[in-house]
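Fill in residues.
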């Protein structure tokens, strides 16, 4: 009996000692670092999308006769063009937009084959939200051949008034070497910016 009691006491002390000790700290699992490489967005063979008026603004406005024009020199994209002083500039590089109220001018530069009447018609047919009203017609811009198309596009409804702004857009296709420019000059229907937009497109120069 005494031997049995001694064994029982030893076992009990062992159990109590195990309960009182703290568990050993284990090292956290190693974290594997991975490097994510940014990929360029896929390129498309079609032209830029149709211009859209801003839904939060139904304000239109003629460009005044005394408007001051500045010269944009886009060395990265390789061109220069005049634009109205005070217009908001967005984007950069190969895609640049100028806005004032719902007057919108956009220049997109890309590599591609020389535009033809057939290819331009194909692009315009695939241009969502655009309705071609004239063209394509051949003309000369700064001594170089170009193509012009006129289309209309309707913007999203204003969140307060529900009104939509309809733009008339003069689209020009210009090319030099392997580069081509698509220049959209949009103005709300009923607004006369013909002279100002003619000055802008005629000022386009490849650099």
């Amino acid at each position: 009996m005494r031997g049995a009691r001694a064994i029982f006491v030893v076992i009990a002390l062992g159990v109590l000692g195990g309960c009182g000790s703290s568990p050993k700290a284990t090292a956290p699992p190693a974290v594997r670092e991975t490097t994510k490489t940014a990929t360029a967005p896929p390129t498309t063979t079609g032209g830029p999308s149709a211009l859209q008026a801003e839904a939060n603004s139904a304000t239109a406005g003629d460009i005044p006769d005394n408007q001051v024009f500045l010269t944009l020199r886009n060395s990265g994209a390789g061109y220069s063009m005049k634009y109205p002083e005070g217009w908001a500039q967005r984007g950069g590089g190969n895609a640049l937009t100028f806005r004032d109220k719902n007057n919108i001018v956009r220049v997109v530069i890309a590599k591609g084959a020389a535009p033809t009447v057939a290819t331009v018609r194909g692009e315009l047919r695939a241009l969502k939200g655009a309705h071609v009203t004239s063209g394509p017609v051949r003309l000369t811009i700064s001594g170089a051949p170009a193509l012009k198309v006129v289309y209309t596009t309707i913007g999203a409804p204003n969140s307060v008034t529900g009104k939509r702004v309809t733009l008339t857009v003069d689209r020009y296709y210009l090319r030099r070497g392997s580069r081509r420019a698509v220049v959209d000059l949009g103005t709300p229907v009923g607004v006369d910016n013909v002279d100002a937009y003619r000055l802008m497109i005629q000022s386009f120069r490849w650099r």
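Helices lie at 2-20, 117-125, 194-202.
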